[in-house]
Structures are given as C-alpha cells and as structure tokens.
Specification:
With about 110 residues, the chain is α+β, with helices and mostly antiparallel strands. The protein has 3 helices and 5 strands. The chain has helices at about 30-35, 50-60, 95-110, and strands spanning about 10-15, 20, 35-40, 70-75, 80-85. A 5-stranded antiparallel beta sheet has the order 1-2-3-5-4. Strand 1 and strand 2 (about 20) form a beta hairpin. Helix 2 (about 50-60) packs across helix 3 (about 95-110). The longest helix has 19 residues, at about 95-110.
Length: about 110
C-alpha cells in the first residue's frame, strides 16, 4: 500500500458520495459516555448547492435522529460531526449503516424541496 493511501477504518460505512467513520478518541470522560462519528463528502464531484443546503437544514432540524446530535461542517469538506447522547451508542456496524442510511435519505429528501 502506498503511503498516501488510507486503509478503511474498522467501523465505517460508505457510498459513492459519503463515508462515515467512528472516532477513535477514547481519552476523556466525554467519550466514556458518548460516541463521536464523522461523516464526510468524498465524491470526486463537489456537492451541489442543494446537497449543501439540505445538509445544513438537516443539522438545524430539531431531533432528526433521536439520540444523536448533528453538527454540519462546510469546511474543509462538507460533512457532519455526529455525537451520541449519554448512554446512547451505535453498538454494531449494522447500527452505523442504518444511521448512515437515514442521514443520506434525509439529505436526499431535503434536497428535493
């Protein structure tokens, strides 16, 4: 493997546009009670204005995913910081996949408005 290639994270889900990975930061009290995930736009094609606006709208919605706080980031790449609420965890890769699918579905739905 070349040094510029990134190995897939053990806990990650993706499609052609997005990738979601679990943060490995386990060094503080916060992470003992909460989990953090990153979801980033990885497509070679930049996100459309509709996708960007839908992503911002998703983060502004009140409780779109129970148990998860969503923070939209526009720079350096479009993405989200997802933080679980106290004692709410995505226990399995399937839980991550279902959450990822819900987020991408919501972005698609909101971009159609």
């Amino acid at each position: 493997m070349d040094s510029h290639e990134i190995e897939p994270a053990e806990l990650s889900v993706s499609n052609s546009d997005w990738v979601m990975v679990k943060s490995e930061n386990r060094t503080n009290h916060f992470s003992a009670q909460h989990q953090e995930y990153f979801m980033v736009w990885v497509s070679e094609t930049p996100p459309s204005t509709r996708i960007t606006e839908a992503s911002k709208a998703l983060a502004e919605m009140k409780n779109p995913l129970p148990g998860i706080h969503i923070n939209c980031q526009l720079e350096p790449e479009l993405g989200f910081i997802l933080r679980t609420t106290k004692n709410w965890h995505l226990e399995t890769l399937r839980d991550m996949q279902l959450t990822f699918d819900k987020i991408t579905w919501e972005i698609d739905r909101l971009s159609q408005r």
